[in-house]
Amino acid sequence: MGTAEPAIVLAGVSKRYQGRAVVSDIHLTVHSGEVVGLIGPNGCGKTTVLRMVAGLVQPSKGTVAVGGVPLTDLPGGVPAGLGILFDPPGLLPHLSGLTNLSMLAALRQVISASEVRQWMQRVGLDPADRKRVGLYSQGMVQRLGIAQALMEAPAVLLLDEPTNALDPSGVALVAHLIQEQQERGAAILVASHYLEEVSRVSTRVLKIAEGRLMPAVGEDLAREQGVDARRVDP
Amino acid sequence: MGHVVRAEWMRGIRSWRFWVAVAATVGLLLLTAVQYAQPWYHPPTPRLVNFFTASEMPLGGWLTALWPVLIPVVAALPGGDSLAIDRRRGLDAVAITRVGWTRYLWGKLAGGALLTLVAMGIAIGVVEAVFAATLPLALPRLLSWVPNLSLPYRVKISGVYGVSYATQFHPHFFWAAPGLFVILVVLVALWAAVSLASLSTAAGIWVRQPLLTLAVPMMVLIVGDVVSQALWRSYWVPSVYAGQYLSWVPSVGSWAALALYWAIPAAVPVLAIAWMAVRRKEWPRSVG
């Protein structure tokens, strides 16, 4: 995935569920090394956009391309080198944190067991802790979810509400990790309710309302929430 | 796909549901052995004695008759439930983005089949051990039952593996290599069970209803059994309940007996389909 070629392209993408339009005519381009924040209230279509980029939901209309290749042309329908964090984060409650990560790492086999342990430590968890994930706090589950999304150095990162349930130190950690991934060259889409959190880590912030990317909303949002308007730009 | 199967194995073997499936299978096998032991002897003997002599039940008798109940339990708990948990925990999305849809789905099928196979293997092993432990009580009858075999094979083959197969299914092979014959019969039985479990998991994926895994093997076996009964004996009821059905016919007539027999079983799939239809509407989760 070269820097000149957009990592993610959504061209006229719409999605309808049972006759109801969830996402309408989305046009979005994200380059490698860029962090794009999507903000908006619950049910506005942020998660659906992320799930369409991941190949988990098929658009009703329009095309999604990752790494220059339309998803419909990909074997398996899912782009390679993707890291995702959705709610729920995809962890099994009857296994320990380390076993969960090891199991997921075994699917791709691109990182070693010691790297899995290092990622647990990086998100502030103890790899030697044999406690079941079902006994974790919500914040610990979220940290583990972040580790599973980032640990294989994905070329494209899709993070849905990455700071959910995190304390201030956890929020700072997520911001640091996102910046690190950006510097590594990953293309990152972050969906959140909170403009301030998103604008802190994003190179660009877009608002989704009623399934549409809203034009010229950046200044309004910035004024409302007191953030740098130059970073709130569709 | 191998990575998905390995991951399924890792999680399945650590899941309490897998071990519940094994325990349920053992319980059902033993319970049915006792039930089948009752009419096996003429005249009937006290139940406790029948339990200890249940090892004489042929596989073609009690085990295959139990499959419609057994397989859904074994398949649904470790295999079908794995799909439901993936969906609930979001693991399906995380796994699919790592391996793609095709490998994920085939891996699920193969992993579910493997776990079902292992669960049934463990259960049959445990039941075998129980029967082996009780064999001394049944030994006198076993010795008189299969007089032409040497003692080790008499004990072995008279167990759950099924002497009835020996006389019905390639008897020359049985007499030439009885040990190999026993292994083959067990493998065929397990393979049939795993195929049904895989079929049900596939159906569950197709209609996006993991719990369908519970119903499909039972439906397939019952339909197959009923069709074979209809072809060979001209009545449309499962062979296990043919005796009950035939006992009703003289008093209420064949059509009424048929309706009476099917009224309750027919209600189950109707309710199940209605329930699934309601659940399916909830499927496109999380559009926020």
Overview of the structural elements:
The complex is a heterodimer of chains A (234) and B (288). Chain A is built from seven helices and ten strands. Chain A is an alpha/beta fold. Chain A has a domain at 1-77 and 187-234: P-loop containing nucleotide triphosphate hydrolases (Rossmann fold, 3-Layer(aba) Sandwich), CATH 3.40.50.300. In chain A, strands 6-7-8-3-9-10 form a six-stranded mixed β-sheet, with helices on both faces. Chain A has a four-stranded antiparallel β-sheet with strand order 2-1-4-5, with helices on one face. In chain A, helix 2 (97-108) packs across helix 3 (113-122). The longest helix of chain A is centred in the C-terminal third of the chain and has 17 residues, at 168-184. The radius of gyration of chain A is 17 Å and the shape is globular. Chain B has 288 residues and is mostly helical. The radius of gyration of chain B is 21 Å and the shape is globular. Classes of the chains: A alpha/beta (234), B mainly alpha (288). The A-B interface holds A 17-18, 22, 42-48, 51, 54-56, 75-79, 82-84, 86-95, 99, 102-104, 106-109, 148 and B 3-4, 6-7, 10-11, 14-16, 85, 88-103, 281, 284, 286-288.
The CATH architecture term of the domain at 1-77 and 187-234 in chain A is: 3-Layer(aba) Sandwich
Put simply, the count of helices of chain A is: 7
Structural class of chain B: mainly alpha
What kind of assembly state do the chains in view correspond to? heterodimer
**Please, what is the average pLDDT of chain B?**
66
Cα-atom radius of gyration of chain B: 21 Å
Estimate the mean pLDDT confidence of chain A. Answer: 87
Strand content of chain B: under 5%
Low-confidence stretches of chain A: 227-234
Largest sheet of chain A: 6 strands, mixed
| Terminal CA distance of chain B | 31 Å
Q: What are the low-pLDDT stretches of chain B, counting only 5+ consecutive residues below 50?
A: 37-61, 149-167, 281-288
- Give the beta-strand count of chain A: 10
Provide the β-strand percentage band of chain A: 15-25%
| Interface with most residues | A-B, 41 and 31 residues
- Please write the string of helix (H) and strand (E) elements of chain B: HHHHHHHHHHHHH
**How would you name the CATH homologous superfamily of the domain at 1-77 and 187-234 in chain A?**
P-loop containing nucleotide triphosphate hydrolases
